[in-house]
Amino acid sequence: MNTINNTYKRIITRVLSGEASAAEKERLNLWLSGSEEHRRFYEQYKRIWELEPETHVDAEFNTQQALHNVLQSIEVAENATKHGVQSERRFFISSPQKLYWLSGVAAAFLILITTSLFFFLRSPQAEMLALVADQRDAVFTLDDGSQVHLRAGASLHYPKTFNDKKRPVRLDGSAFFEVEKDEQRPFVITTDQATIEVLGTSFFVESKDDLVSVYVSEGSVRLQSIHRNGPGTIISKGESGTLVYDQQQIFVSRLENMNFLAWRTGSLVFQNEPLSKVFSALAETYKINVIAPEEVMNLQLTGRFQDETPENILKSIGLVFGLDVAKTNDEYIVRPENEGLNDNEPEQP
């Protein structure tokens, strides 16, 4: 079970609950076609999901908690089978009008005949909420007053009300956090491979398939792999920390600039930076792709851009260095002027 990436477990939950986007459905189909183990897991998961009583239309149900419950049930069933032990569970579904109580013994018996699995639904006290920035960046304020700036495509899951011990959230994608200070309740962010703990600070988290990076603009955070015990690594103001999953190592470095926040501040600053890094910053900020030969990539730029479009920035760079810039969809081609553009190539922006 632990070999299945948590990202796909959540996508399956969203697909089965009817909340998945077209991109998520396509991603799931590709994942299913890649492995027999993936297909078996999906069918197993789907059978459990379909055990939800359809007649209880007034019952509360939460897909994020359902994910947790289904996965917990699979783990419990596998452990029980491994040790030759069968457990008894009872569960209930509550709503303002009715209280349904079901015996887990009969349900587990039916499930064990075909899948050796069973599950129980959540209690209403564990309600989870989800924030999603689908097509564009979005800003949200949490129950404790903390602000979350989600990048497009990112999502955040969190409890409706934080408890008196900590403030846990789960992040998929990238986001900038402005956390309200509360020394009694640490703010804890979980990704697929890491936890980030803070008391009150401002920082940017970028979660990818192979690494997670934290850029701290105020205060400090603790970055730790979920696979290692210990105190973790402190990332202070003006530093970045990156956990590389396959190495299980955290690398800390000084921030050269604040361009990682340009998507939010509109400010890009370069000091003798090669155009390879400039184009990389533009790609991260505007979600575009810039293609150029090595001789162009090695040119160095010093400059500041505030609230400019990528087209205007590239035009300015072209004027400084004598470069041609052509655009097709979200891709830009930059080359020396003396190379020219063929008639079949895209026009300049």
Describe the structure in your own words.
The chain folds into 3 domains: 121 residues, no CATH class; 127 residues, Jelly Rolls, CATH 2.60.120; 81 residues, 3-Layer(bab) Sandwich (Phage tail protein beta-alpha-beta fold). The chain contains 9 helices and 21 strands. Helix 1 packs across helix 4. By secondary structure, the protein is of the alpha+beta class. A hairpin with a 7-residue loop joins strand 6 and strand 7.
Please list the strands of the largest sheet in the order they lie side by side. Answer: 3-6-7-9-10-13-14
- Number of separate domains: 3
Taken in chain order, the helices and strands follow as: HHHHEEHEEEEEEEEEEEEEEHEHEHEHEE
* End-to-end distance: 50 Å
- Tally of DSSP helical segments: 9
- Helix and strand content put the structural class at alpha+beta
* Range of strand content: 25-35%
- Helix content range: 25-40%
